[in-house]
Amino acid sequence: MRGLVASCALAALLLAVALADHHHHHSSAQSNEEEDSCHRLSAPNADFAVVLYKSLNAKTAAGNNIFFSPLGISTALSLLSTGARGETHSQLFSSLGYSTLNQTQVNEAYKHLFHMLGESQENQKLDVGNAAAVRSGFSPLEQFLNDIKQYYSGEIFQVDFTKPEEAAAEINKHIASKTNDKIKDMVKDLDPEMAMVLINYVYFRGQWEKPFDGNRTRKEEFHVDGSTTVEVDMMRRTGRYNFYRDDGNHATILQLPYKGNTSMMIVFPDEDKMNQLRRWHDSFFRTNVNLGMPKFSISAEASLDDTLKESGITDAFGDKADFSGMSNEVPLKVSKVSHQAVLSVDETGTEAAAATTVEIMPMSLPQAITLNRPFLLFILEHSTKSILFMGKINNPTA
Ligand SMILES: *[C@@H]1O[C@H](CO)[C@@H](O)[C@H](O)[C@H]1NC(C)=O
Ligand SMILES: *[C@@H]1O[C@H](CO)[C@@H](O)[C@H](O)[C@H]1NC(C)=O
Ligand SMILES: *[C@@H]1O[C@H](CO)[C@@H](O)[C@H](O)[C@H]1NC(C)=O
């Protein structure tokens, strides 16, 4: 019940973010078309993100972090749906919120989205990718392979599941190579009878538009809950930030831009108000903020099987599965859907510190915000209106 209320707030926040996005870039007619195409995905993907968050929140033990990539998961399931038919396909599309679209439109939209994300990688590392490890000796239909390569920057590779440890090592090596070695041990204990493993990986490393000064970082307390306190490296910076104080919801919302078209959105509920968030509508204003933010690295993983089944994707996992778009010889079903995401938050931006503009500070008293209690976090990519990541940081040291 509590999770439900918190999640409604998330949906509202995402709405506010989309509306508050004034960074409109002038672009040619062709890229407008590209933008329109991938923006078609942003509303259904945001809704699905909330469904995922609710489910993961309900399954996450107190004090553990929630961190996942809504974009990554929607992408992986869309890729899967290219090979699905009948009710299996309908369930996927219905859960993803794509019921008014057809597969071609969704494929095109993802192709454009990846193209646009690829364009904005100059100052950040953003890798979103998919792969399907398929049992040796099984040849998927040509059309399926082509769709995956053409639209999803996806790869299918053959793995000998009869040697589960070697198969796992091969899959893990593939993922490690795509994630700068940040995710090295994603799969283990593979079933030798496995028909296919669907993999999604996401790696993000952004540089703050306005870096923190490492000299100001100090050990401070972070209050995980009423009885647990941990020590964190608290980074400090005073500067102009998009800020919104929501008294009705007992929360403060803050936007920290990365270089490029990406920003981190922080929702910091007042003490003991994490579960009392409700809707809000207003937009940000810019103000002086004296910000304290933990420096942390987290990695969170989740098996999504139950979460997806709860969202209505059931046939894909069972004997009713129809993946006749992947093979018309071997009946297939999905064995497992895993997801892992990694985030590092630190002071950096040092290489580009020289290019940082000097800020003229009005003499008003800055708002003091120290993130020393659990907070919600989103990483948003503005040109595609994508939620790259979403999470609840309950304990930065966990
Ligand atoms: C998908 O929808 C578009 C636009 O309505 C249409 O032009 C196209 O033919 C449809 N494709 C398929 C495979 O149904
Ligand atoms: C931001 O996105 C626009 C497209 O909307 C793109 O043209 C621009 O290059 C991107 N900016 C950066 C810094 O990547
Ligand atoms: C941090 O302190 C060191 C040593 O005092 C100094 O050389 C350096 O310039 C400082 N860094 C910044 C960003 O002020």
Describe this structure in words.
Pfam families: Serpin. Keywords: Glycoprotein, Signal. Belongs to the serpin family. This protein is α+β, with helices and mostly antiparallel strands and 398 residues long. The protein has a domain at 34-206 and 298-344: Antithrombin, Chain I, domain 2 (2-Layer Sandwich), CATH 3.30.497. It is built from nine helices and 13 strands. The chain has helices spanning 2-20, 29-39, 42-59, 70-81, 86-96, 103-119, 142-152, 164-178, 305-310; strands spanning 66-68, 124-135, 154-159, 196-206, 218-223, 229-246, 251-257, 262-269, 285-303, 337-345, 367-370, 375-381, 386-393. Strand 7 (251-257) and strand 8 form a beta hairpin. Helix 4 packs antiparallel against helix 5 (86-96). The two termini are 25 Å apart. The model is unreliable at 1-27, 278-282 and 349-363 (pLDDT under 50). The structure holds 2-acetamido-2-deoxy-beta-D-glucopyranose (3 copies). The site of one 2-acetamido-2-deoxy-beta-D-glucopyranose (NAG) has 3 residues, from helix 6.
Tell me the name of the CATH homologous superfamily of the domain at 34-206 and 298-344.
Antithrombin, subunit I, domain 2
Overall average residue pLDDT: 78
Gross CATH architecture of the domain at 34-206 and 298-344: 2-Layer Sandwich
User: What does the radius of gyration come to?
Assistant: 21 Å
Task: Point out poorly predicted stretches.
Answer: 1-27, 278-282, 349-363
**CATH top level class name of the domain at 34-206 and 298-344:** Alpha Beta
Count of discrete alpha- or pi-helical segments spanning 4 or more residues: 9
Distinct small molecules: 2-acetamido-2-deoxy-beta-D-glucopyranose
Portion in strands: 25-35%
The residue fraction in helices comes out at 25-40%
Number of strands: 13
Oligomer: single chain
Fill in the CATH topology of the domain at 34-206 and 298-344: Antithrombin, Chain I, domain 2
The general outline is: globular
Instruction: Give me the secondary-structure category.
Output: alpha+beta
Family: Belongs to the serpin family.
Signal peptide: 1-20
Protein name: Serpin domain-containing protein
GO molecular function, one term: serine-type endopeptidase inhibitor activity
